[in-house]
Every structure is written in C-alpha cells, then in structure tokens.
Amino acid sequence: MSTNILSSLKPIVSLAKRRGFIYPGSELYGGFANTYSYGPYGSALKNTLRSLWWKTFVEKRADIVGLDGPILLHPRAWQASGHLEGFNDALIDCKACKSRFRADHLIEQATKNSAEGKTLEEMTQIIQESISCPVCGKKEFTEARHFNLMFQTQMSKTKDSAETKAYLRPETAQAIFLDYKNVVDTTRVKIPFGIAQIGKAFRNEITPGNFIFRTVEFEQMEIEYFIKEDAWETTFSDWMEDMLLWCKTIGLSEKRLAIKEHDAKELSHYSKKTVDITYQFPFGVGELYGLAYRGDFDLSSHQTHAKEKLQYRDPKTGEVFLPHVIEPTFGLDRTLLALLCDSYEEERLENGETRVVLHFKPHIAPVHAAIFPLMKKEPLVNAAKKLFHSMQSVCRVEYDETGAIGKRYRRQDELGTPYCITIDFDSLEDQTVTVRERDSMKQERIPMNKLPSHIKALISSEGSDLHSL
Ligand code: ATP
Question: What is the value of pTM for the model shown?
Fold first, then answer.
C-alpha cells in the first residue's frame, strides 16, 4: 500500500461528510461547536471497533469482566477522585478580539516548546511578553486562570436537598472504582483482574478542534486492572504490549505510532507513571491512547471519602491489602480518526485518473462486501437481491444497483469496502460471480455456492492477530 501521509485533515473531513461517516453536530442549526454525528458508515465503523475491543479485552480474557456504569456519579466521587479540585485547563483570553485559548496550547504553537508543568503565572508571563493573538495579532492578553473541564448539571429532588449539582463524567474510570467492591463481592474475580468499560465521557475543552481528535463529548474504552503492588512493573509492560498489538490488529501503521513517557512534571495527580501511545496525525503527533500506573490513589481516596473499606482479601493467603491499579485507556473517536488518516489514499491510476480509497483491513471495514447487478435489469436485479439476502448472515453487505458499475466501484473504494461482487448474465448460466478486490482491483470468478465461505475466510484471516492476545 502506498498511502500518502496527509498534510492536512481537509480531505478526510470532506470524505467523511461526503460518504456518510461523520457529519458536523446540529448542522441543521448552523452547527454546535465541536460536536459530531457519526453517520451510517461512521457508526458501523465505531460499532465494529467497539465490539472488537470488547471481544479482545473482555470476552477472550478470563481475567477481565465488563461494567456499564452511570454517566452521573455522586458529586462526592468527583471530590474524591480529585476532579473537582484539579481537572483544570489554563485559560487565557485576548482582550482585543475576545478569542479564548488554552494557555499551554498557545505557548506550544508559538514557541514549539512544551508548556507542561508550567504554573499559571509562568504561562501568563510568557504569553504577555512574547506572543501575539493568532486571531487578531494584538498583544493584549488577560492573566491565565484555571477552568474546570467538567460539565455541570442539576439533579432535582435528591434525598439530601431539593436540587444537587451533578457532573457529566469526564472519564469512565471512576464508575469502575465505585463498583469495584460490588464486582469483587458478586463475582469470582481474583487479583490480578480487570474491569472494563466503554462509554461516553464529557469535557468542556476550551479549544477543541482538529475534527474528532478533541471534542467535548467522546467515547472511551477503559480498563482498570487491579494488582498487588509488587506486580506493577511487569503488568505495565504486558499492557503496553497488548495495546500495541491492538493497534496492529486494527491496522494502524507502526511507523506512525510512538511511545512517549510523561516526565514527573507532566504526570496527572493520580499517576506514578504514564506512557502515551501517540500517532502521527496530519496536524502533528497527538496522544492516541494512555497507559497509567495509578497506584492505590483511587481506591484509597474513595475509601476515605465514602468511609467504606475497599480492601481485598486474598482467598488463599488471607492477606488483606488495597489493590494497585494499572489503567490502559483507549479513545474510540481518536482510533477512528487515526484509522481514517492511515487508510486514506489518493491513488493515481494508469489511465491518469485518481481514485480515493480507504484501505481498511477487511475485518474492520464498515461494509465487507457490496453486491451489484451488472445492470439495473431483470433477471439480474432479482438474482443480485437474492444473493444479498443470503449473504447478510455471513458478513456486513450492501446492495447497490444505481449508476455505472465503475462509479459503484469508486463509491465502495471511498467507503473502504474490500470486496465487490457482481452478478452478470453469465452468472445466471454458470452460477459464478465476479469478486473484485479493492486494493489490487483484480477480479476473479467464484462459484456462487462457495461465496459465503470464500468471503468469510477473507474477512476473518485479517483478524487473526487477535487470537494471540
Ligand atoms: P489530551 O492530553 O489530548 O487532552 P488526556 O491525556 O487528557 O488527552 P486521558 O484523560 O488520558 O486524555 O483520556 C484517555 C483517552 O481519551 C485519550 O488517550 C484520548 O484517546 C481520549 N480523549 C481524551 N480527551 C478527548 C477529547 N476531548 N476528545 C476525544 N478524545 C479524547
């Protein structure tokens, strides 16, 4: 595959809209900042990734169980987790044009140096002394100040008061800690074990942007893996391997992935060690996933705030201890963006034309196979529809009879469909069909009765890396 490294997100944004992957949120009302809607093919891709992740890390592992916790947690949980106090970004405004920026991003963009670990005062000084507003060019900034990223809402009639402040969860992790004891008490899990969750998280990001890379509402796939303290180093490196294997399994190019360890200044309040898996996006290198050693910060803090014992009792040795936690976290939306960028190609054909192709691995593609009658004519249409219905139980199929066959191929190339199956007049005679492969554009005749096993083998062989996890 000769996929070009894109220099901008423009072609991806345009394809995503044109082909029904991703639409701007509330477009009917002129859009709603940094929210997006996943269209028919985007939601299919998301569902595939979500269920593949769940299969890989929950169903195929004896040591991990699933959870589906609430988005709204007791407000005291956010006090215990440190989010009420410390989940802040530094915000700075331009007094002249009223544009608002994240102070660290402004510094990083202007100076190309990291602003991680800098205090509000240090950031204010750098910006006020040496940076012009990227929007109006003036140098009239306010002081930098903290801005909590949690969305607030109200819950009426709780038992404590008529109305209580509540927060949309900014990460899925805390719901897992809140139910850690329930899971231990009601299932057969034994340390080491993990609890996995997939769900929405919400952050009132100050300067979201870069399409779906940074949005205010996004989906996380997280595992809290509970261990004895002395096992943390091996568990951490095992998880790093598994996360990289996942990247390979879904088809991300190794050359665009890298590992970046946070230095002491960058570490979150809960973390003893954090390593990001980064991806080379068209706009630069950005965090794709994170792996953190959270120590016993969360269980210990919830134990104190909730006044409930959260210790674990080893059933064999009788030893009682507070487990430590390794947390692998995967952003679903960033996975999708990385996959779109990785698989996008504008390919120059021999006849001088350009075709746009998404080179998804076959098992990831939103549509595995498209079925066409050569022409919109009977008895071809009837035969193709029959084949479409029989293939629906085999894989994700789509039926298309509209337009010239060449145009239908191009449309499927842009959707990343690996196989197109055409029924022509010969098919009616000899019961064979043409299968056209997306990347090579090669065509072969396959007997219709062999088609289900043929396609099944093609789409599942690509997923075989998973079995070694
Ligand atoms: P960043 O430094 O980019 O703000 P983070 O370190 O705050 O990210 P985590 O809190 O580690 O992110 O969240 C776990 C994962 O959730 C990230 O690796 C990323 O894939 C995803 N994620 C975090 N924030 C967003 C967002 N605003 N939009 C989309 N995905 C996000």
Answer: 0.92
